[in-house]
Specification:
little secondary structure
Length: about 350
């Protein structure tokens, strides 16, 4: 009898552990601690070659944000690389087979320049530790006010982490080990890509060679006016620095809708007439109603990636429908070579929405 009770207890414990393992889906899983941390930043009187050379670093890590995320993406790497020492293969849109950039692009071009753009500052965000301060804009983002400090990866002057906390490490503290089984924006670890407060569906390989079935699903809202602001959308994140392009009287003329003064964001194309060119999305880049990774649209429901759109709160225009967050080889961090089309490129992603203007 007592043996049976012990067997039952054993299986209860095993099942509990399995259930906990399924729920506690941490950001970093199955990677040895030593891959990221060192106790003393010293080994045999020196430092290891794979460690960053400017340490020791906070949180006992072996490198800073840039150092840890420098490399070449190959589809199987467990760390997303957003800066490469040699030119990434971007193709025309960063989405084709053979490309090796991720959803945010790459900082390579803002550091090293691009054959498409004479001013490298236009090809990416000038993050401290990688690029110099923008020679034209200084520390004032377009459509925003002076930050008073060069852009950083995270924190008060950055995009990732808690923007109420100054410092990359401090703003991201604990996030890499957080339970992210639910992305609800309540903490840094539970926010989309560590962008505190932002929600969305995270593609498992950060959009390495994405298609209509494998991609991030960005959060947008079908807002009713330029002052209707939802702090969980991807466009709101951009608006924290580039506010004039998202909020206020200078977005639309008199009321929320066409004629626009600035390109709309957090606007659902379902509000256009049923026979309009916008209802043909994505135009020549897929069948009508198919989700396009060339010019991605957001949705209010981000529980899973959408392969098709229904023009009902799932064709929402966002900042990153046209731009990438880190960098591209093209002017103004555009996803495609808008200024080189049609002579230098066959793709103009604007046509995904403006299907009658090719």
């Amino acid at each position: 009898m007592f043996g049976d009770i012990n067997v039952v207890k054993f299986w209860i414990i095993v099942l509990s552990l399995l259930l906990f393992s399924a729920v506690a889906k941490a950001k970093i899983v199955g990677i040895p601690c030593a891959s990221c941390h060192t106790m003393h930043y010293s080994q045999n009187g020196t430092i290891l070659q794979e460690w960053g050379s400017s340490g020791p670093y906070k949180a006992l890590v072996i490198n800073d944000c840039i150092g840890c995320h420098t490399g070449t993406n190959n589809g199987s790497n467990t760390t997303p690389y957003i800066f490469s020492s040699s030119a990434p293969n971007y193709g025309e849109t960063g989405t084709e087979a053979g490309t090796n950039t991720l959803a945010g692009g790459n900082f390579y071009w803002v550091v090293n320049g691009s054959s498409w753009v004479t001013d490298a500052d236009r090809t990416g965000h000038n993050v401290e530790g990688l690029a110099n301060v923008d020679q034209t804009l200084g520390t004032t983002p377009p459509g925003g006010t002076d930050l008073g400090h060069q852009l950083t990866c995270a924190g008060k002057y950055g995009c990732h982490g808690d923007r109420n906390i100054e410092g990359d490490f401090e703003a991201l503290l604990g996030a890499h080990h957080a339970d992210d089984s639910v992305i609800d924006g309540s903490t840094v670890g539970k926010s989309y890509r560590f962008l505190k407060g932002i929600v969305g569906y995270e593609d498992s390989d950060w959009e390495y060679q994405p298609d209509a079935f494998h991609h991030n699903q960005y959060k947008g809202v079908d807002r009713a006016s330029e002052t209707d602001i939802n702090t969980s959308t991807i466009s709101y994140l951009c608006a924290e620095c580039h506010g004039d392009f998202h909020n206020g009287d200078d977005v639309s003329f008199g009321s929320w809708g066409s004629p626009w003064l600035r390109h709309p964001t957090d606007y659902d194309m379902s509000h256009t007439p049923s026979g309009s060119e916008y209802r043909q999305y994505p135009g020549q880049y897929g069948s009508t109603g198919q989700y396009s990774v060339i010019a991605p649209v957001a949705s209010e429901d981000v529980s899973q990636p959408k392969s098709t759109v229904s023009f009902s709160k799932d064709t929402i225009v966002t900042c990153i429908s046209c731009h990438r967050a880190h960098g591209t080889p093209y002017k103004y961090i555009l996803r495609w070579n808008y200024y080189g089309w049609p002579v230098q490129t066959s793709v103009n992603g604007c046509n995904a929405c403006h299907t009658a203007k090719d």
